[in-house]
Structures are given as structure tokens and as C-alpha cells.
Write a structure and sequence with these properties.
- The chain is of the alpha/beta class.
- Helix content is about 45%, strand content about 15%.
- Helix 5 packs across helix 6.
- The longest helix has 16 residues.
């Protein structure tokens, strides 16, 4: 907290009037700092985290942490929620209790869920995997968690960010147990306009609109992914990590900017 308190931010923005996609807005960064210093209550946060049932299981030599909240409804559907990176199981905490409660689908059918939220290997309380570990390996481990550890014969899965890629692996490789999947993001790019033309496919106005949105995201919304997949020199990587870790405010600025540049719609809509 002392580092945050001692962080000196400029009084006025260096480049006023620049869209947030060019970097985090100074007022936003100031508000984050103010919230961190004067409003964030770590003891309250701990109590909230501890209000959920946490478990660990040893699978293939790894300790896998997970939150498990069964529904009181005996007909509830087992549901695996997988977080992204950078992120954690905390992404899903606000929706766990509502998902366990009986609700109705759009057709009026009652539905509720037994909710399982694991931490990816190497994140939070799950131990780090070997260096050659892949998402396919995580999919296999999470399938074991759901079927052999928790005893669910079939389940649905939802994932955010890289968890969406993991969701695809589960549905692709373990489709006898993963019986439903929801993809906020899919691990492949959409068909280009040239490919559509070459196949002599005619899009409806709605399909054309959706395709244009998808292509815009492909061209302008994936910088976050690109930044993390290309190799950098070890010295450059160490310098960047040191630069960020020396200041929590700097780290907050980096990730807020990353979100804005990667998802400009999020910047426009707050």
C-alpha cells in the first residue's frame, strides 16, 4: 500500500482528448488508485472468499484447487466454469449462488446447476504444471475432476478468455462427458471476405453485419493475444516484469490499457 500511496501521478493528462484505446485515461487511473487506497477492504474481501467452499484434489501429480457449490435441486445440471488469464476463479464468484437456484429457461423449463469453478494449473491455489503442459492436458485433468473426483457422469462447460479455448478442448476431446459448451470466444478466426467470395456464399444482411463485426475484432481486438504469444528476449521480459512489479499502480495501468486496446468496445461502453 505504501507504494500505491507514494505513486505520483501527473496533475493533467499528457495527451488530452486522446481516445482510451491509446492508453488508460488519467482520471480512470486516479480513481483506481483512490479506490485501492481508501475503499478496498481486504478483510471484507477475505470473508467473502471464505464464504465459499474450497477444495483441492490431486490429479496427475498436480494439486487442483476448485470451488464446488451443489444445488439443492436433485435434477440440477453439473456446470464447469473455467476462468481466463490474467484472471482467477474469483471471476465467477458473483454468479455461483444464482446458478444453483432454480430458474426457468426461455421455454419455461426449470433449470439449476451444480457449479464447479477450478483454478487453472499454476494459478491461485493450483500447483504449476510441467513446462510442456498444454491446454489439452488441462482439459483432461478437468474432465477427471468432474467425472472421477466429483462423480458427475456428464456436465456442461463455460469458459472466459483462454478458458474458452479450454472449453473447446473439453467439448472436442471429451464429448461423451462434456455434453454442452458455451463459447464467449472460440479458438479460431472467422472466414475472411475473400474466402466467402471464393466459396460463392451469399450472406444475409444480418450475417454480413455479424461478419463485419467479427473481422473488426480480428483486426483491432486481438492485440492483447498478439502481445503475449510472440517471443521476446529474456532481458526484455525481465525488464518488463521488473518495471511493472515495482509499482502496483503501474501494473494496474498496464492491464487497464491492455483491456482497452484489445476490446475497444469495452472502452467505449465502460
Amino acid at each position: 500500500m505504501e507504494r500505491i500511496k507514494n505513486t505520483q501521478l501527473p496533475e493533467e493528462p499528457q495527451y488530452p482528448g486522446v481516445e482510451p484505446s491509446r492508453g488508460v485515461d488519467l482520471e480512470v487511473l486516479k480513481s483506481l488508485r483512490e479506490n485501492w487506497l481508501n475503499k478496498f477492504d481486504w478483510e471484507k474481501e477475505q470473508a467473502y472468499l471464505n464464504s465459499f467452499e474450497h477444495f483441492t484434489a490431486t490429479i496427475e501429480g498436480l494439486t487442483i484447487h476448485f470451488v464446488h457449490k451443489p444445488s439443492n435441486d436433485p435434477d440440477a445440471i453439473p456446470l464447469l466454469l473455467t476462468h481466463g488469464w490474467p484472471g482467477s476463479f474469483m471471476e465467477f464468484l458473483p454468479v455461483i449462488d444464482p446458478l444453483t437456484q432454480k430458474a426457468k429457461t426461455s421455454t419455461g423449463k426449470p433449470v439449476s446447476f451444480h457449479v464447479v469453478v477450478p483454478s487453472l494449473p499454476g494459478v491461485a491455489f493450483s500447483t504449476s504444471p510441467p513446462g510442456n503442459w498444454t491446454l489439452a492436458d488441462t482439459a483432461r485433468v478437468f474432465n477427471t475432476l468432474m467425472t472421477e473426483v466429483l462423480g458427475y457422469k456428464t456436465f456442461g462447460v463455460h469458459g472466459t478468455s483462454i478458458g474458452g479455448f479450454l472449453t473447446f478442448d473439453l467439448y472436442d476431446k471429451f464429448n461423451t462427458t462434456t455434453r454442452a459448451a458455451h463459447f464467449p470466444v472460440v479458438p479460431f478466426y472467422c472466414t475472411t471476405s475473400e474466402e466467402i467470395a471464393a466459396r460463392e456464399v451469399t450472406l444475409s444482411p444480418l450475417e454480413q453485419f455479424e461478419h463485419e463485426r467479427a473481422m473488426d475484432w480480428t483486426e483491432n481486438g486481438t492485440s492483447y493475444v498478439s502481445m503475449h504469444i510472440y517471443k521476446v528476449g529474456k532481458l526484455t521480459l525481465l525488464r518488463r516484469k521488473a518495471y511493472l512489479m515495482l509499482s502496483p499502480t503501474r501494473l494496474a495501468s498496464f492491464y487497464t490499457t491492455t483491456l482497452w486496446v484489445s476490446w475497444p468496445g469495452w472502452a467505449r461502453n465502460g
